[in-house]
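Hi R.,

As promised, here are both runs. First protein below:
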Amino acid sequence: MLAKNMYNFEEIPNAVEPVVNELNNIIKDFLNIDSDEKLEASICALETIDSTIESPDDPKQFAVNLIADAIEKYENNLPELQAFETLAAALDPAISTLRVLMTQHNLKNRNLKSIINVNDSAMSMILNGKRELTRKHIEKLSNHFKIDPALFFDKI
């Protein structure tokens, strides 16, 4: 009840409306993104405004947040991103981790098979998701690359 006594909440909508309308007139073209061209323009607007922000409580941060939300909404609805997220969700985290390690360390199957001590066929089956990494394999890989074994498991 203290807040009700300290502020006149009924005046807020009328006080805010002209400010919000002014802001909307300035950035509205960057909020309704429906093409890659508008996406690029919105990113440029966001970067331009963001480069002038001097502190976290700068009022321009509000406009940056609005534009960033519009960009995120557009990008989240892109078919290629949705397809990627569907594919990524279906991937075995152990195989994904293994492939990232191979890429980062520029390894071939033969390098990896010597680390976990398996033959060519077993290595191929593991990488193709037809055979799972064993606890022993994960221990060897974790020790070799000095990484947390949890990277090979689903996030709970």
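And here is the second one, sequence first, then its structure tokens:
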Amino acid sequence: MKTLKKHKAKATRNTATWLPRSKRGRFFTRLISMMMVMSLILVYPGGALAAPPSIAEYTAYPPFGGKLIKPNVLINLDTSVSLNYFAYDFDFNARTTRTNGGGEGGGSSVPRSEGFTDNYPTDTYYGYFDSDYWYGYGSGEFTSTAPKTGSGLSGARAKNSGEWDGNFLNWLTMRRADIIKKALIGGKTQGRIGVSTVAPDDNDLIGQAARTKWEGYEKYIADAEPYTPLSGEQTFEFDNRSQQRGKSVSVEEVASFEVNNNIYNVVVHQGTLPEGVIQSVGSSVRWGLEFINDYGPFAWDDRGGQ
């Protein structure tokens, strides 16, 4: 029995002294510290993790690189005769006898455009007029009156008898030059062309006038009543030379059309100066402009002049 007790005491003494006495305190201190850190991680996992790195930590610039260069944007613009063609449903080879015959512009047959498709609001025609609005005409200009049914805008209503459909007016009056000007700078206005006798307000948009009948003379619709103050079959005649005769403006300054012996200027009232891509992007890019004209410095009109 004494021998057994002696061996037990010796085993206990060996287990307790497996580390030197001088290192036992440091070991237990570190063990307790590690247990406290692990406890904090388990209790507050979000606070223990580092914040995600920012993109700046992975971005490096040359030490002597200077400032960043603005991108270059070059506009390659066609200024040939075709720029004055109707923007929608224009066929140069689709000829018809002039409605009024003779007169300014010469010739007995002209390009005639038709094919207006009313798929509003799924499909709309882009231009100076707002496709979501009705328009009235007075004092030589078109002015929006109310949103159209189906536009989803507050105050939308059906057409009144004396109103025009903005979507139809875009199809009827817009030429390719108008579309380009609308997209780039918001459109041609009285203030921008430097005259004061064309429109009631400097901010009003002014449609591009055709110089000859070959650039688009007539537009036709089988039933005008849903889109205009008129009814039934109608032909809209664009003869800028005749319609501007006797006025104090040149044929290049404002477009107009005639229907039912009434002349309407393609002038759209605007409360503020319209803007396009160039104003929106501004000085954040470096702009360049290049012109293309297949006909050289001169273009022949239909009467043999230059």
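A quick note on the second one: Residues 75-292 form one domain. Let me know what you think.

Best,
J.
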